[in-house]
User: What shape does this take?
Amino acid sequence: MLDQYLTVKGYGEQEIVIEKSRFIAYVNRAESEEEAVQFIGQIKKMHWQATHNCSAYIIGEHHEHQKANDDGEPSGTAGRPMLEVLKKIGLHDTVVVVTRYFGGIKLGAGGLIRAYGQATKEGIKAAGVIRRLLHRKLRVTVDYTWLGKVQNEVQNRGLKLDDIQYLDQVTLTLLIPKGNEDKAAQWLTNLTNGQARLEWGDWIYMDQPVEIA
Assistant: This one.
């Protein structure tokens, strides 16, 4: 699992008009090629009368799966520029389809490259970009006398408190950023004079919004 990576928040769409041609960008997260292909098929079915439904996706921890499709536009003027936008931003697990309705004015190769690139970027902005940061759950069980002190320290350190369970003792579930596990265990042990029971749980990603230019 990657410590962190960028992807889109979810579904988004945006339309731009260039020289009377409509370019409608559809963006979504896809964590497999099957999901990407299915999404592309849905858009093509919805816009079966469109002049072109060009697509691109980039999937996998190390961008193992990449594909670009010009769907009838001159070779290299649609799918490839769309894919390059995904790569330039650094996105993972993202699929984009740009539907074009021809407006009667030819754009030329350079114009098409710019148009499909711009439409892709606007679609990504509409979907929203997030940074996914890997954390591990840490369950901290203490007597109630330690609760206030632990909560205050968690807040002061800016850690995420995921859950609290009130039973005979209180159990707080914290989300610890990857790479900080030993440090977190040490300060909690010191804070409670060794009276806290610590139990590590599953890994989980936390999402952080990212602005793109």
